[in-house]
Amino acid sequence: MAIDEFAPWEDPEAKPIIQFKNVTKRFGDFVAIDDLTVDIYEKEFFALLGPSGCGKTTMMRMLAGFETPTEGTILLSGKDIAPVPPNKRAVNMMFQSYALFPHLSIWDNIAFGLRRDNLPKNDVKDRVEEMLRLTRMEKFARRKPHQVSGGQRQRVALARSLAKAPKLLLLDEPLGALDKKLRQDTQFELMDIQEKTGTTFVIVTHDQEEAMTVASRIAVMDNGKIIQVSTPDAIYETPNSTYVADFIGEVNIIEGKATSVGEKLSMAWAEGQPEIVGTPTTEFEKGQSVHFAIRPEKVSISAEKPETANAVQGKILDIAYLGNISTYHVELPGGQIIKAQAANNRRLSRRSFTWEDNVWLGWTDTAGVLLGR
Amino acid sequence: MRRFSWFNATSLTLGFAFLYLPMVILVIYSFNKSKLVTVWAGFSTKWYGELLNNDAFLDAAWVTIKVAVLSSTFATVLGTMAALVLIRSGRFFGRTLFSGMIYAPLVMPEVITGLSLLLLFIGIGLDRGVITIVLAHTTFAMCYVSVVVSSRLVSFDQSLEEAALDLGCSPFQAFRLVTLPIIAPAVISGWLLAFTLSLDDLVIASFTAGPSATTLPMKIWSSVRLGVSPEINALSTLMIGIVAIGVISASLISKRSAIQQQRDERAAERSDD
C-alpha cells in the first residue's frame, strides 16, 4: 500500500471544501433532495451515482448556483454559498449538452470566462493556449463548435470550464454523448487532467462503470438520499445495503434468517439446503432476516464438491459467453438461481461445462456480505 | 420523377396566373407612353421621371419609411421582451392571460384596432401625426415579432445562458453576449416582418394619421379614387422591385449559409480522431 495514499476523508484534521448540511430541496410537493449531509474534500474526484430522478443533478445545480436549497446550508471553503449568484462563485460547470456558444470560435469559447474577469489580453491568450494544449485542441482553435466532432466538443467544454481555474469543477454526465470506446479513453484523460490541475471534481453519472473508473469516492443516491459514500472498492466489496449491492455490478442476493450469530453467522434460506456461513460486519440478532449478497466472480464452479465453507449443487440453466469470462446461471433444487463467473482461460471447445450439467458452486465464508436491509 | 401531365400543367398555370397576372399587368402598364392606363401606346419610362418630381409622393414615401423604421424597431424590442417573458419565466400568475393578450391583435380586425387607437389618442389629447402612426404600428407589429422570436426561443438551449452565468456573466451580459447573438436571425426576421407590415398598412394608418402625415399607401389609395394614373403604376413597380430584391437576397443568404454549415459538419466528421 502506498504511504501517501490519498484519503482525506479518513483524516480528522482535513477540512472539506464542500459541506452539505441537512440540505433539503423541494419542487412543489416533490422532494428532490432529502435532508442530505455530506463532505467533499479538496482534490477529490467525487462521483454522484444514481438512477435518473434520484436528485444527483439537483445537488450539482445547487453547487453551481442555479438552484437554492429549501432548507439547510451548503458551505464552500467554510462559507455559506446560498446568497452568492452563479457568476460570483469559484465553481465552474461542464454541461451535459456541453453548452458551447455556437456563434463563437473554440478559442473565444475558452476565453469567454477569462474575459469576464477583465484579465489583460496577454494573460487571456496564455491561459487559452495552455487550455488548448491540455486538451490537445490547438489545431482547432479557430473553428466553430459545429465544425468539430463530438469528442472534440467535449474536450472544448472541459477546457472552457477549467480555464478560470475553479476551486471546484462540476461535470454533469460529461461523457454521456460519446460512444463506448471514446468514453473509456476520455475517462482516463479526465483523471489525468484532474491530477495535473489539482482541481476538485464532482461528477454526476448514472454509469456505474464510469464512476468506478474515475472517482476517488462514490456517493450512491436514491430518492434524494445518499445511501452510501465510499471508495469504489469499498462500495463494490462491502455495500451497506442490497440497493447499493444491486446497483453496482452484478450480484446474487439470497434472503434468509440468521440461525446462529457470533464471529460467523449461519443463515437458513431454503428447505433441505445447507445453511450459508458468512462473516458479519455489523450486529445481527438470532432469527433476524438477513440478505446475503455475493458477486458472481466470487462463486466458484466445479464438477466435484469443493472444499469451501459453502457448497451447493445445481444444474446449469444458461451460459452467457462474454469472451474473456463466462457467466453461468445455475438453478438450485429450490428454484433459486445463482450466477457464477469463470475466466475462460481455455479455448471454448475445451470448456468443461455445458447446459443441463450438474455442478457444484462454492464460496468461502468471507466472500459475500451479510446485509440487514 | 413524375411525368408531365395536363392536369399538373393547368393547375400550375392557373395558380401562377392568379398570383402574378395582376402584378405583371401593372408592371407592363408602368412603361406605357399613354396617359390612359388601359390603352397601350408604346414603351416609355417617362412616368418614372415624373414620379421623381412629384413632391407629394416623395413626402409620403419619406413618412412611410420613417414610420416603418421607427415602429419596427420599437416593435422588435418590445416583442422580443414579451417573447422572453413568455418562454422563460415558466408559470407565473396571469401567464395564460398575458400570452392570449399578446396574440389577440393577430386576429383582431384592423378596423377595430385602428378605431380604438384613434379613440385613445383623442382621449389623451395626442396630436395625430407621425408619432401616432408609429405608436399604432408598434402595437400591432410587436405581436408578430413576439410570435417569430418565441418560436426560436422554444428551441434555444437554456443551458447556454446558464453556462454564460457560470463563466461569470451578469444576467444582462449573458443575454447580450450569448442569447441575443444566437437568436439574432429570428430578431432580424421579426424586424423585417414588422417593417413590411408597417410599409403596406392602410387601415390603421388611415385611422391614426393626422393632416400633417400621410403614408404612401394612403396617398396611393386617395389618388386612385381620383383615377389611376400611370405614375402609380411606376411607383408600385418600384415597390415590387425593392421587395423582390429583398426577398431573393435573403433567401440566397440563408441558402448559402445552410450549404456552408453542411460542408463544415462533414469536414468535422472527417477530422474526428
From TrEMBL, chain A:
Coiled coil: none annotated. GO terms for molecular function: ABC-type polyamine transporter activity; ATP binding; ATP hydrolysis activity. One of its GO terms (biological process) is putrescine transport. Gene3D superfamilies: 2.40.50.100, P-loop containing nucleotide triphosphate hydrolases. It catalyses: ATP + H2O + polyamine-[polyamine-binding protein]Side 1 = ADP + phosphate + polyamineSide 2 + [polyamine-binding protein]Side 1. GO terms for cellular component: ATP-binding cassette (ABC) transporter complex. It is an enzyme of class 7 (translocase). Residues 18-248 form the ABC transporter domain. Its EC number is 7.6.2.11. Keywords: ATP-binding, Cell inner membrane, Cell membrane, Hydrolase, Membrane, Nucleotide-binding, Translocase, Transport. InterPro entries: AAA+_ATPase, ABC_SmlMolc_Importer, ABC_transporter-like_ATP-bd, ABC_transporter-like_CS, Mo/tungstate-bd_C_term_dom, P-loop_NTPase, PotA-like, Transp-assoc_OB_typ2. Belongs to the ABC transporter superfamily. Spermidine/putrescine importer (TC 3.A.1.11.1) family. Part of the ABC transporter complex PotABCD involved in spermidine/putrescine import. Responsible for energy coupling to the transport system. The complex is composed of two ATP-binding proteins (PotA), two transmembrane proteins (PotB and PotC) and a solute-binding protein (PotD). This is Spermidine/putrescine import ATP-binding protein PotA. It comes from Shimia thalassica.
From TrEMBL, chain B:
The lineage of its organism: Bacteria, Pseudomonadati, Pseudomonadota, Alphaproteobacteria, Rhodobacterales. Residues 61-253 form the ABC transmembrane type-1 domain. Belongs to the binding-protein-dependent transport system permease family. CysTW subfamily. It is a multi-pass membrane protein. The keyword tRNA-binding does not apply. It comes from Shimia thalassica. The keyword Cell cycle does not apply. GO terms for cellular component: plasma membrane. It comes from the Bacteria. It is found in: Cell membrane. GO terms for biological process: transmembrane transport. This is Inner membrane ABC transporter permease protein YdcV. The chain crosses the membrane at residues 12-31, 60-86, 98-124, 130-154, 174-194, 232-253.
